[in-house]
Specification:
Blueprint lengths: L10 H19 L5 H8 L3 H29 L1 H22 L2 H15 L2 H12 L5 H30 L1 H21 L1 H4 L5 H10 L4 H8 L2 H32 L3 H28 L3 H18 L7 H28 L6 H28 L3 H22 L2
């Protein structure tokens, strides 16, 4: 790939950033495949289990704007190491505790660690990548994150059935601690020194004023991108959290087939971002690419609301919907970059990613409430509608 040949981006730096992003997404979704086991063991409702993902999303959202501001002040590397380390400890403790409210508290604290990834990673990618290959780099970064989601569905349920869901959760924490040690040992790889472009960036960062930052945050394009992130995240988070439960309940397929369909959905998301990175780099109208892709995903999710379909149709809809969402993602992030001054890139991605966190907060609770109501067909229709409505925000953004 062209961007891997760029002298401004060492391959090791990209590999470290992608490893961290993989872990972030894996950790965010690690308990969703185990919901049926956890519900039976702890005697809690699906709404309460969805709240575990939601509280992590809430604290992630609260932390992202401050972390974005901090990243623009001190750089992304140290902030990233702090975030991975904090998440790791929280997941390790969660696996050792095994009681609902203490896990709830630990997941809330883990969200603070999770809040660092988007502002820190994008700040480093923005500094290390040339403009001509930025979309390619972002797409590979996204690919690693979506593969983290897919890996969570592929790994966590079999591991939980083999060693128990608590031990499986503790393993997630141990893996994070190993990654933290790796990032510390290779810290110099992520810190670009003696770079004229980076020096200029640091000079610009020092001139950022709070009033200017607030004006930028509340500008129409950025607010609408924030709303777009929020709405799509409600749909995506709800689908990822309860797709297995909904497919088992509504379509009466085996739990492992349902888990496989979600894994394929997430793998196709990851493949989609690679395609989307190439498209976003070749076509200037990223808002059109994003809108068409999101509309396609909405239609695929709505197709799952039909009763009496066989599992091949379910697989097709899940794969096509994931591919469409993946294709939209690089164009979505290029749109954020378009409206962001260089000295406020971390703040911009921190703010828009807060919308993603709000969606991650609302989506699992909303989806869990629908599943507790005993109407799983409404689950797919509601998610499809929310995803479709998000297209309006792209139109209003007029980037």
């Amino acid at each position: 790939m062209k961007f891997l040949e760029s002298k401004t981006l060492p391959v090791q730096a990209l590999a470290l950033l992608c490893s961290g992003h993989f872990y972030s997404h894996f950790a965010m979704l690690c308990i969703a495949p185990m919901f049926l086991l956890m519900s039976a063991d702890m005697k809690v409702s699906f709404t309460e289990l969805g709240a575990l993902i939601s509280v992590m999303a809430f604290s992630t959202g609260v932390g992202q704007i401050p972390m974005g501001y901090l990243v623009d002040r001190i750089g992304g590397c140290r902030v990233l190491i702090f975030g991975v380390g904090l998440m790791s400890v929280c997941f390790l403790i969660s696996g050792m505790i095994g009681t609902y409210w203490l896990i709830f508290f630990a997941f809330g604290l883990a969200g603070i660690g999770n809040s660092v990834f988007h502002p820190a990673d994008y700040e480093m990618l923005n500094s290390l990548l040339n403009k001509s290959v930025f979309a390619h780099g972002v797409s590979l970064h996204m690919f690693s994150g979506y593969m983290g989601w897919a890996a969570a569905y592929a790994v966590m349920l079999p591991m939980a059935n083999f060693i128990g869901w608590q031990n499986a959760l503790a393993v997630v924490g141990v893996l994070g601690l190993l990654l933290t040690l790796l990032l510390i040992s290779r810290k110099n790889v992520l810190e670009v020194k003696n770079s004229p472009e980076l020096s200029l960036g640091n000079q610009l960062k020092s001139k950022v004023e709070l009033k200017k930052a607030l004006r930028f945050i509340f500008s129409a394009p950025l607010v609408n991108m924030f709303l777009f992130f929020s709405l799509t995240a409600i749909g995506i988070a709800g689908l990822m959290s309860f797709s297995v439960v909904a497919l088992v309940s509504y379509h009466a397929i085996d739990e492992y087939f349902a888990s496989l369909s979600t894994t394929l959905h997430l793998v196709s998301c990851a493949l989609g971002v690679l395609i989307g990175g190439w498209i976003a780099n070749c076509i200037k109208h990223q808002e059109f690419i994003t809108a068409v892709s999101i509309a396609t995903m909405s239609a695929c999710v709505a197709g799952l609301a039909f009763s009496g379909v066989d599992f091949w149709f379910i697989f097709l809809m899940m794969i096509a919907g994931g591919l469409a969402y993946g294709i939209s993602s690089p164009s979505r992030d290029v749109l954020v970059k378009k409206v962001s001054p260089k000295e406020m890139t971390g703040l911009a991605f921190g703010f828009t990613s807060t919308g993603f966190s709000i969606g991650n907060l609302v989506g699992p609770i909303f989806a869990g409430w629908i599943m507790d109501s005993g109407r799983p067909e409404f689950f797919f229709l509601a998610i499809a509608l929310i995803i479709a409505i998000s297209i309006i925000t792209l139109i209003k953004a007029r980037i």
